[in-house]
Amino acid sequence: MINEQVVKMAEGLFKSIPRENIGFFPTPLHRLSKISERYDVEVWIKRDDLTGPSIFGGNKTRKLEFLLGEAKQDSRDYIITYGATQSNHAMQTSIACRKLGLNAVLYLVAVVPPDEKWPRGNLLLDRVMGAEVHIEPCSSGSANEARSRARSAAASRIRELEDKGHRCYDIPSGGASATGTLGYVEALLELGRQVKQEDDLPGFDHVYQATGSGGTLAGLLAGKELLQLDFELVPVDVGLVEPGFKEDIAALAEQALSLLGAGRSIAPDSFVIEAEHAGPGYEIPSIESSVALKTLAREEGILVGPVYTAKALSAMFAHLESGRIKKGSRVLFWHTGGASELFAEAEIVGDDILTFAE
Q1: What are 246-250's contacts with CB under 8 Å, separation 24+?
Q2: Contacts of 252 (CB under 8 A, 6+ apart)
Q3: Is CATH 3.40.50.1100 what the domain over 60-175 is classified as, yes or no?
Q4: Fold category of 4-57+176-354 in CATH
Q5: pLDDT by residue (tens digit) across 62-95?
Q6: What is the pLDDT of residues 103-119, one digit of tens each?
Q7: What gap in Å lies between CA 223 and CA 70, rounded to an integer?
Q8: What b/e readout covers 284-304, taking b as 16+ CB neighbours within 10 angstroms?
């Protein structure tokens, strides 16, 4: 159970942090009754797919409240950010900028080449929102090389805008900066308040979440340390984790705590990345992730996305099946959004979803 004195201390730390109200919080927390009964485990879901302000919410909205709060405080009018063409972060940035009267400039890497004449999924939403979109192909060379070219192009665009008198605010992929990470420190405070309202729920033993750029993971690690919580955090790689990732995330968590004036040390070996469910790679679904997506949809009527959340869900189901999660345990699946990916290119959605209409 979360300590009330610790909560009050943590809430006080946020009072001086600039923030813009963008989403609708708290997001719902509820029990997955059929899945709980199937495995004799208390399985709950935190619905950050419902953050708003549009129906296509997600975990980046939490980060953007702090990122754009900082941008507005510093009178920035152009927001530059990065991702793949179906980036949930880029889409949510486009929406948040419209709400706050800012201009979104997106540099997107075509990991899966889109049809730019007839855009789908999040890329379509970016266009609808009027974002300035630049697409970097990566057919000749690696995605990392394409990301490097996108950053170089963005730097040139920033110079051009600032020469015209504009003020730019540069957000890394996924909002994975110390400021953005604060969104998930605060999210654990929100979760603690919700758990307190549930008479039969003293807390969770395991928390599952999809990890890509790592800002959400860093925020949860920082919040877990700040609030002195003892659940097992299970971050599931979606195909982006590279050597040095854990060290970078631990450092990011520490930086977020420093922004709050709560310097703490987070060891890279204090958490384990679940790496067995990334499938063939980023934006490429696996059979297991497609099965997990369909299972949640058919059992509970809830949709997840094939790129991120389905992979985290497949890890949770695998651990329920294997007994790694013990009967009687309390498990939270943190739904970070992404269902709009189901309307993306066929390669991203996957054959196992597209052929499951019978």
Answers
A1: 246/271, 246/273, 248/214, 249/214, 249/217, 249/218, 249/221, 250/218, 250/221
A2: 176, 177, 178, 181, 214, 215, 218
A3: yes
A4: Rossmann fold (3.40.50)
A5: 999 999 999 999 999 999 999 999 999 999 999 9
A6: 999 999 999 999 989 99
A7: 20
A8: bbbebbbbbbebbbeebebbb
